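I'll show an entry:

:::
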Amino acid sequence: MIIPRVIIAPLVGGIIGYITNDLAIRMLFRPRKALYIGRFHIPFTPGLIPSQQGRIALSIGEVVSQQLLNEETLRQTLLSEATLHTLRQKITAFLHALSKDERTVSELIHQPGIGEKVDINADALQQKLTDVLSEKITGAKLGYAVVDSVIGDRMDFITQNKLFSMLIDENAQGAIRERLAEKVNGLIAEKAPEASAAIVSRYRGELRDARLCDLYAKIRDREEKITDGVMELYTSILGDNLGKLLQAINIEQIVVDKINGLDPAELEATIFSIMKHELKAIVWLGALLGSLMGFVNLLL
């Protein structure tokens, strides 16, 4: 009977195509561990993705570190007009805060946590002031302001990519932010004593009994030059040390560790949640192709 064959052949082909593609997709993730019969390793176990999880992690880590957060990209962002504008605002806010601070320099030096109240000569005062100013610059934690700008700009690609956004979650992004900020703050802390000493040495004779607000009044006209000097220090630090900074952070390893730390079941659930519709489409495409092959087989 020709009619039953016209119905049955495409139907059987469609069922075979559906089952075959569904099985192939499941074999990407299952089984999650290698299976053995005695000492004989059963082929295709574990599934493709669990067996290649380390390679997948390395590939994604390379993409992030070499294309998204590489030295050239970070240099462009860290030295971009937007980042420099944010940093300049932070410096300006710090200087303006001095305009309302009526403590004298001596009071600032001798306040709890900075040092005991002692009589000090001009050289010791200069050193003390240098230490305090250096501490203030370091304590401002400018690295976080800088890095927040970088992470916000460069993580857009990750958050817009479904797969990357799931595998490189907020924890991994936070780890990158913390390491990068720590290194930037470390570089600032390294250069702060030298910069502070240069500033203090210019005004050592006027400083001991001067109020901070009065000192600010004296430098108000030079505020822009002082800000420019700090900005030049910032760009110099990054220009000379960005490569070393990235090497120390090792962004690639952060991403690799994050993905390798996923349990195979978590990895499967993550990918299925991202590509559920696409994987279903592949299964139904197998059914469609199977039906077409069954129908074509009738014509041969």
Observations:
- The CA atoms of residues 29 and 47 lie 5 Å apart.
- The first helix runs from residue 2 to 29.
- The chain has a mean pLDDT of 76.
- Residues 53-258 form one domain.
